[in-house]
UniProtKB/TrEMBL annotation:
Membrane topology according to the record: Peripheral membrane protein
Catalytic function, reaction form: a polar amino acid(out) + ATP + H2O = a polar amino acid(in) + ADP + phosphate + H(+)
Pfam families noted in UniProt: ABC_tran
EC number(s) from the headed UniProt entry: 7.4.2.1
InterPro entries to which the protein is assigned, alphabetical: AAA+_ATPase (IPR003593), ABC_ATPase_HisP-typ (IPR030679), ABC_transporter-like_ATP-bd (IPR003439), ABC_transporter-like_CS (IPR017871), MetN_ABC_transporter-like (IPR050086), P-loop_NTPase (IPR027417)
GO cellular component: plasma membrane
Organism of derivation: Phycicoccus endophyticus
Name of the protein: ABC-type polar-amino-acid transporter
Length: 246
């Protein structure tokens, strides 16, 4: 594996009595693309949110590029900027244009000059295929276009790693491919990515590894090919049996 970029060691988290992450160990190398997969409620979103410090955890450690996650303050803001996150719902600011949505972070958080932020945002919007929509408002775009803007917005902060939490599951079927295509391109460009998705086509095309989570535990890790054709654990077999019948 390449040099480790994101390292989780024995991470435990509870929500009250619910033990939601159980001794989670996970290392993601620089440039690696890891798929997180598992039943609903297995802790995938919590794991992503914990890596970004949107959630606290009780024991274990998480390092990003060799640095322990800070608890709060300026350092935490810097860390958040290092970790891009794309959610199921795109959360664009409705009263700002597409361009403004993308330049907001770089100008406010990174102190970039507006002209530079605009130039860079336009490059990113072109890259995700919505350059011609830059002066429109989010509601004027399709869901697939809005999600691509959300990806551009994250990239504008120059993150070291990108987390995607079911980025296509709120989209109409015909828009899923255009978002996955952008993610495949991003993966090929060398971005380190942790992606929660059940999209097997994407996993096969772009992922180095599949990590199967069940009941807050990493149950199995394998290449996409191995995992989807020959899962080892009963829990993975059972899970794949359910998603493959649809
Ligand atoms: N803020 C919260 N407070 C209490 N329980 C939560 C909270 N967020 C998630 N959970 C619970 O933690 C478990 C894991 O949830 P989640 O990480 O969203 O799973 P997944 O993304 O794999 O579907 C679920 O049982 C869920 O109900
Ligand atoms: Mg989830």
């Amino acid at each position: 594996m390449s040099e480790p970029l994101v390292v989780l060691r024995d991470v435990n988290k509870h929500f009250g009595d619910l033990h939601v992450l159980k001794d989670v160990n996970l290392t993601v190398g620089r440039g690696e693309v890891v798929i997180l997969i598992g039943p609903s409620g297995s802790g995938k979103s919590t794991l992503c949110r914990t890596i970004n410090r949107l959630e606290t955890f009780e024991s274990g450690s998480i390092t990003i590029d060799g640095k322990e996650l800070p608890e709060e303050g300026k350092e935490l803001a810097a860390l958040r900027a290092d970790v891009g996150m794309v959610f199921q719902s795109f959360n664009l600011f409705a009263h700002k244009t597409i361009l403004e949505n993308v330049t907001l972070g770089p100008t406010k958080v990174r102190g970039m000059r507006k002209a530079e932020a605009d130039r860079r945002a336009m490059e990113l919007l072109e890259r995700v295929g919505v350059g011609h929509q830059a002066h429109k408002y989010p509601a004027q775009l399709s869901g697939g276009q809005q999600q691509r803007v959300a990806i551009a917005r994250s990239l504008a902060m120059d993150p070291k790693v990108m987390l995607f939490d079911e980025p296509t599951s709120a989209l109409d079927p015909e828009m899923i491919t255009e978002v996955l295509d952008v993610m495949v391109e991003l993966a090929r460009s060398g971005m380190t990515m942790i992606v929660v998705t059940h999209e097997m086509g994407f996993a096969r095309k772009a992922a180095n590894r599949v990590v199967f989570l069940s009941d807050g535990q990493v149950v199995e890790e394998a290449t996409p090919e191995e995992f989807f054709t020959n899962p080892r654990s009963e829990r993975a077999k059972d899970f794949l049996g359910k998603i493959l019948t649809h």
